[in-house]
Amino acid sequence: MNESNRSWHERAAQLKIDGRALIGGKRVDAIDGAHFDCISPVDGRKLADVARCAEKDIDAAVASARGAFEDRRWAGTAPAARKRILIRFAELLLENRDELALTETLDMGKPIAASRATDVNAAANTLRWYGEAIDKVYDEIAPTAENSLALITREPVGVVGAIVPWNYPMLMAAWKIAPALATGNSVVLKPSEKSPLTALRLGELALAAGLPEGVLNVVPGYGHEAGQALALHNDVDCIAFTGSTRVGKQIMQYSGQTNLKRAWTELGGKSPLIVCADVAYLDRAVDAAIGSIFYNQGESCNAPSRLLIERPIKDMFLERALARVADYAPGDPLEARTTMGALVDDVQLQTVMRYIDAGVSEGARLLVGGDRARVDSGGFYVQPTIFDEVRNDMSIAREEIFGPVLSVLAFDDVAEAVRTANATPYGLQASIWTRDISKAHKVARALRAGTVHVNQYDEDDITVPFGGYKQSGNGRDKSLHALDKYTELKTTWIRLD
């Protein structure tokens, strides 16, 4: 173990974690005293006792958020002042980079290099960007007759409930709370029970940045308890959810059963990466396919888990792809050189293994991987896995696995590739690789996905909206379009004569 890795292990041993909720600007236990063990997927160690919030705690958090909204301690703050606080919030993330990255890795299992260089930076950039943007968003005057003045103004929707997933805990929290706070809302944030720790720390840093007490509340707990109570709450005006399609459907139902709160959902994906025989950048396509499916242990909703290759180049492509798999051997997430870490918990590990078993039993050809790794570590690791000869009716081709498993399907012409790519209930992302620009345009238009990449995959920028078609959800995160989720449009008519 080199000196830098020893440092991360030493810091992990010394890390002090407060698992209490944040309600009304105060760290508090659950009202009934309940808690749950937060277990690290890295090695099975217990990280903290975390408050197991339930309905009463949600009531308290929503009441805190409602009080803060109604007295306008934040909603009534000038956009330029909100900007300063959100930018300071972003700066505090960077100042506490090592602590946040270490907490994220221990809690979720991703490599420390990714947590430190990508997740912290991206979360801070999100907060800074929305802070910078909010005092540059103008209202409108409608082109009415000259004897009338019609003003169209954006107003905060009120109390926003944000429920975020376990795979990118810090970044997904930032994607929700940054535009919601920028537009003047109060927020109740419910992180996943599988990785709640950085969200709790974000709440503390927000207060340190100057966010008024009660504007951001963080309530850890189980989805069927705290999450359900938040989605059913009649005093929540908007629910923003990222997670599984199954739970997303429940969120929509809860809205209809209660106060018709806005329900925005970013859900699952089964994204296709289509490589045509006339691809101009074969090695780049190989790097994109392998790097994107095995990044974050495959625990990404937009991972290109279906690789569609035109038959004449399939063998050559797979030969090069298999040579790259060794670059993603699971390793100790606290080592700087590790590129693939642990799955989030044993439940997810067993889910991935069941899909691998299903792939074999349904007739797909296992090319590499397919087994657990680092069993003696006490953590939850799976080998990077590739299946060939996959049919689109197999479960590994149709269902979201959320693990390092790639399904390879061959096609004979681009029309077949488009039909196969679209033959899924999901529509989050897709990619087409070809040197023919006309073909690229036609395929991009035909693919039913929120984002279509051409000759690359998973390019990312906060200025670009993120979201999906079909059962991949509704609404968009990132970009100025996200402001639409957290604001109401008001028209004010004034008669001038």
Automatic annotation (TrEMBL):
Signal peptide (from-to): none
Domain Aldehyde dehydrogenase: 34-491
InterPro entries in UniProt: Ald_DH/histidinol_DH, Ald_DH_C, Ald_DH_CS_CYS, Ald_DH_N, Aldehyde_DH_dom
Gene Ontology molecular function: any one: aldehyde dehydrogenase [NAD(P)+] activity
Keywords, alphabetical: Oxidoreductase
Cited SUPFAM superfamilies: ALDH-like
Family: Belongs to the aldehyde dehydrogenase family.
Name of the protein in its database record: Aldehyde dehydrogenase
Species of provenance: Candidatus Methylophosphatis roskildensis
